[in-house]
Specification:
246 residues; four-stranded antiparallel β-sheet; homodimer; DNA-binding; globular
DNA sequence: CGCCCTGTTGAGTTTTATCAATATTGGTGG
DNA sequence: CCACCAATATTGATAAAACTCAACAGGGCG
């Protein structure tokens, strides 16, 4: 199976064989096998290589002095961890795994070379960082305006679509290997409240959640209760005018 | 006085005379004078040129179906509006002025040319978009974890520092030409609660607010109550190794 | 078998929102 | 310069959403 990064970038534009091959190769050179709850990189450290999630889940997060934690975003296969890497000298947040994960480290010069060599690829990577920013803005909207039910269902819609984008949805089901406490830290809610809100969504038949498997019988219905509008994900091949011929 | 964009970028790296001149010129070619509460660009529109705030305040925002509004970020002089411009085909949020403002429109080819011509400038612009993303992450933390008092004082710290970065702070005072309702939309609080929280900060001697002038008698004190740590703003010249010689 | 981690439930509390009324302010025209 | 108006800020009272605390259940694993 292809690197999930390729699947992801091809939501923007079709890559050439060379570009795909280049990414494949980069994804296999320096792979870290990580356990759950390990840090990929920590706040205040200088970013070294570019980290790419190949399998498993991770998250960006930040602790406050007194131990409160906010999960800033979820990282799933195909996601790049530290686009800041090239310009900023130190991380302003940490990245940690949530599950066992395999993480590829792509050396800096390699990326620089690839971006110079393949302009289409450079555009695609730029797209990915802009989408990442768009997702962050949407989280701002959720945390600022949406109530617990909307917030949770909105997050589930987003996750479902993002997983589908890299081929990790089967039928109406996907993995959701995340504890309620972690959802709570992402949503700015207490675990108790997340628990009750999940039950509410289940009772309404909007989701199923058994083991670590999330099922969404009707995505439109879930999107409706979330007030979810997918266009911030920019998944509709906005770079199709750049498509490779092959 | 120099374009605020130059001041801003020089928090990252010192630009050459050519680069500065280029930016100055670009800032003066197509200038829009806008009134308060006008849209610079609207959600779902294709971004055309790159908009740069020369004076006045604006914000990114998004409405939900039922009229709730979240202000996603504040834009002050020196801020670029639509870094997405180059790659994304449509805006996923709107940008509107809060006060009368002058906005420069920089044509796309011009930017592309400048970034190819001046690598240092390209790095600086990249830095600015990464800082923008870092600020968005910090808003996520605020909205998710901080209570009303922390949230408000954190925002005021951020605004104060950003304004200082472009030379818009005099002594311990700066302009804050923003209505309480707008603060509320940014902080995810009701206007009533913003009002009471402001009073609390005033009563504690942490801020003064008269007319549209904010005074911060002791920035460290305000930062302490906010739990504010400035390093996410990356203002400490992280690109100094790129400094122009002149 | 027992333990720890995660999820679930109930009760009471806190924060923040809502509603409605009143005060203040800045701007405008006379 | 004053009177008036609309927009903004302030206040009080009540309600809702979400939190905290504490206890208990279930499941996986040594």
């Amino acid at each position: 199976m292809p690197s999930p990064l390729i699947r992801k970038l091809e939501q923007f534009t079709r890559l050439s064989r060379d570009e795909r091959q280049m990414l494949e190769q980069a994804s296999f050179e320096a792979v870290r096998q990580m356990g759950p709850r390990e840090d990929v990189i920590r706040e205040r450290e200088p970013p070294q290589a570019l980290n790419l999630i190949l399998s498993g889940w991770a998250c960006r997060y930040k602790y406050l002095e007194d131990g409160r934690r906010q999960i800033i975003s979820f990282l799933i296969p195909g996601d790049l961890c530290d686009n800041p890497a090239f310009v900023l000298r130190e991380m302003d947040h940490s990245i940690g795994t949530l599950t066992p994960a395999t993480v590829a480290q792509i050396a800096r010069p390699r990326i620089e070379w690839a971006m110079a060599q393949y302009p289409r690829l450079a555009q695609a990577l730029w797209w990915e960082s802009l989408v990442c920013a768009a997702v962050q803005r949407e989280w701002t909207v959720s945390l600022g305006q949406r109530d617990a039910t909307e917030r949770l269902s909105h997050l589930l819609c987003e996750i479902f679509l993002r997983l589908r984008g890299v081929g990790l949805v089967e039928g109406d089901a996907c993995e959701l290997p995340v504890k309620q406490a972690e959802l709570a830290d992402a949503l700015g809610l207490s675990t108790v409240h997340v628990n009750r809100t999940l039950q509410e969504l289940r009772a309404a038949g909007l989701i199923g959640l058994k083991g670590k498997i999330l099922t969404v019988p009707s995505l439109p219905a879930l999107m409706a209760t979330a007030g979810f509008s997918p266009h911030y994900l920019h998944m509709d091949r906005e770079g199709r005018h750049l498509d490779a011929a092959e």
